[in-house]
């Protein structure tokens, strides 16, 4: 895991993106189906991979502003997920997620942007590590953009209120081949 940059120094652009996420994306979030993230609300962006055994994609939420920001944060990214911790309107979400490895849709390297407030990112520095107590905890500040191997054990063990997480991936080749077939 490495810190790529902190985009909070972008001033108004950072604040506008946080406000865009809170007002435009959070209200569209749905309850996560993952057993690792009970009570987490999330929204797939660009393309939504099917998390079962079959390689399938469907079109997810996207607009030109969002795509521009995501491509600036992670050029070539073709799927992303945003989650929220806190309460806005009907959304009362716990953005913590238990230790896991990302599934077969994702290439090894992912990027995550921490928005709005602090969080603790637990990460195994070794692929073979299957013990959460052997993970290292990193404090992420608002605006921190990290790159990590999503096939290593990782988790969000703490999220402060109003914290959002934007995780971005490049699809594996068998999923990229499906991009022209999304529904």
Describe this protein's structure.
The chain is an alpha+beta fold. The chain has a single domain, classed as Jelly Rolls. The protein is built from 3 helices and 14 strands. The protein has helices at about 10-25, 65-75, 175, and strands spanning about 1-5, 30, 40-45, 45-50, 55-60, 80-90, 90-95, 95-100, 105-115, 120-125, 135-140, 145-150, 155-160, 165-170. Strands 1, 2, 3, 6, 7, 9, 12 and 14 form an 8-stranded antiparallel sheet that branches. A 4-stranded antiparallel sheet has the order 8-13-10-11, with no helix packed on it. Strands 4-5 form a two-stranded antiparallel ribbon.
What is the strand and helix layout of this fold?
Blueprint lengths: L1 E5 L5 H14 L4 E2 L9 E5 L1 E3 L7 E3 L4 H10 L5 E10 L2 E3 L3 E4 L5 E10 L3 E5 L12 E5 L3 E6 L4 E6 L3 E9 L1 H4 L7
Antiparallel strand pairs: 1-12, 2-3, 3-6, 4-5, 6-7, 6-14, 8-13, 9-12, 9-14, 10-11, 10-13
Question: Key features?
Answer:
183 residues, alpha+beta, Jelly Rolls, eight-stranded antiparallel beta sheet, 3 helices, 14 strands, 15% helix
Q: Tell me what the CATH architecture is.
A: Sandwich
**In one word, what is the shape?**
globular
CATH superfamily: Alpha-ketoglutarate-dependent dioxygenase AlkB-like
- Give the count of structural domains: 1
| Tally of DSSP β-strands | 14
The residue-averaged pLDDT reads: 91
Low-confidence stretches: none
User: Would you give the CATH topology?
Assistant: Jelly Rolls
Number of helices: 3
The level-1 CATH class: Mainly Beta
């Amino acid at each position: 895991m490495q810190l790529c940059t902190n985009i909070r120094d972008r001033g108004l652009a950072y604040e506008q993106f946080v406000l865009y996420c809170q007002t435009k994306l959070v209200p569209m979030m749905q309850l996560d189906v993952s057993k690792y993230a009970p009570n987490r609300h999330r929204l797939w962006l660009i393309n939504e991979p099917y998390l079962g055994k079959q390689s399938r994609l469907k079109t997810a939420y996207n607009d030109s502003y969002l795509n521009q920001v995501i491509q600036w944060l992670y050029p070539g990214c073709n799927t992303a997920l945003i989650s929220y911790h806190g309460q806005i309107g009907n959304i009362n979400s716990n953005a913590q997620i238990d230790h896991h490895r990302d599934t077969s849709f994702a290439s090894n390297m992912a990027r995550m942007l921490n928005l709005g407030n602090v969080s603790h990112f637990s990460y195994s520095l070794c692929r073979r590590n299957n013990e959460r107590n052997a993970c290292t905890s990193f404090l992420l500040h608002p605006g921190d953009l990290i790159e990590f191997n999503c096939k290593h054990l990782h988790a969000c063990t703490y999220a402060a209120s109003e914290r959002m997480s934007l995780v971005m991936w490049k699809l594996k080749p068998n999923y990229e081949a499906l991009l022209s077939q999304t529904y």
